[in-house]
Amino acid sequence: MTDTTEVQEEAQVDEAREALLEAITAELGDALVDSHLQPGQDLWIRVSSDSFGDTADYLRERQRFRFFDYLSAIDWLPSPFGRSLDANVDNILNPSDAAEPVAMEQGVAGGETRFQIIARVYSLTTHLGLHVKADVPDDTMTVGTWTGVYPGAEWHERETHEMFGINFAQHPGLRPLYLPGAFEGHPLRKDFPLLARLVKPWPGIVDVEPMPTQDNPEDAA
Amino acid sequence: MTAISDRRQMAYVAAQAADARVNVELEAEGMTLNIGPQHPATHGTLRIVARLDGEQVIEAEPIMGYMHRGYEKLTEVRTYPQVTTLVNRIDWLGSFCNEVPFILAAEQLMEIEAPPRAQHIRTILFELGRIAHVSLFLGDLGVQLGAVTPVFYAFRDREHVLNQIEAATGGRFHPNFDRIGGVKDDLPAGWIAETRQVLQKLREFCDLIDGLLFGNEIFEARTRGIGVIPADVGLSYGLSGANIRASGVDWDLRRDAPNGLVYDKVDWKVWTHPDGDAYARSWVRLQEVRESCDIVEQLLDTMPPGPIMAKVPRIIKVPEGEAYVATENPLGEMGYYIVSKGGLEPFRVKIRSASFNNMSITPWLLQGAYVPDVITILASLYFILGDIDR
Q1: B236 domain residue, yes or no
Q2: What is the pTM of this model?
Q3: Which structural domain range is residue B339 located in?
Q4: Which residues pair with A131 in a beta bridge?
């Protein structure tokens, strides 16, 4: 009995998201590049870089997404420092075994550039959230701003600007938000070294070694 | 003789008055008032530079970053279980509440569900965290307005809640208790009965504050109509939690998106207030503490038996994917956007903290406010600096 109701509920949510996606697909036209629907969980759309700024207006005025949630970016470059705890190489401990360049692989709803904007809006009538992604052109590093529609985006865009070096056209003042004025570099980029790790390497691999008795029968002997 | 000296004196007074007027204009024009970085109203180190015209603020700019710890960068070199230690320190007053959305997001990616008893314990601790957090606000609010007494009651009674959190988790402020797939330990013996007594004390504390502050004429005069946020403005700035509910928006993630927490098994209501001013924001918070006491009470009654951990691999690798989970934290919506590449540590974590958005409205909100009201407005927005400088 409980199982059937759960299935029904899940199906309902899916319907709502699918209907939303259909409406957006129909109305955005070419501006919509890709989308991804995770049934019962979330919906992503990817819009073209040029139309990112106008998407905010469309979402707020036509789709009634009145709540601005957040805006940030993702750097898809695999870390050049090989810091991954399960990586075979660690460029900090052994600078000689330079990691083989790993192909860049963008996440859900695809992507073509190294940097991607990720933003989220929420509708209070349907209680659905929507993730909006947009590629950031590698040469200009500029996308449109959302501040005209959602004034709350101002600080988020300032943070994204200083952390990733992404520019927002027509933003009222892209001053640094957290970092001191003379700071050089963009800390959340993958090729920005985490200085604490450079100074003192982290014995992370030791931390997650399997316990000798259970996972490695040879050690137990 | 007297006529001349009278005339002289009048001329002198007039000249003095003209001088004074010039001086006042010179000083008031673009006078800059620096609030902080070490002001008790800032709950951390926040600096606000306000340009004044007489007693009115014409422009205010918050300056942050004094406490930025770079958690988004640090999470990229930590395993998933290690991240909870970090995120405990984001909003340090409601520390357990910080862990929950991160763990829920990781569980969503791994497609694990915590057993019912673990979900219950999580929800109880989540609400106890809210009670401890917001009851301190209620006392602190008085201090910002010049009433010193309530804060002593707040510290006294918050301690009871912190003791319960400590008894269950081992940590007063940084429990680090939530695990992927469940919680670290079961509740100690006798904990449920003790918590019931504590809830009774907290209800009495709410009544006390209700009488001390909300029934106080001076408090009303200082907060009614101050810092009014219309619902639409608040939403476009991303205000959440009690701040937006005080503007008449009936929205609570506990009710509208209870992913992984058991609020749907409890009978409770979402409090709103139509006014949107400092009084409304404080009043909504007071009602929420009372409501939280009821929620915890009901959860203690319906505690299910069973395990507290689901079956999870010893070495936690999260499958490739992206997930965003947000919960209704004491300060508002807090969420984590996790990008996983299938490794031991997240590829990217975006921390959506409530105070960052709640604070971003201050340049708009402080415009035209009078200097004595600045602190009232800041106090009523209720932010924690660690939650802004993540």
Answers
A1: yes
A2: 0.83
A3: 88-357
A4: A44, A120
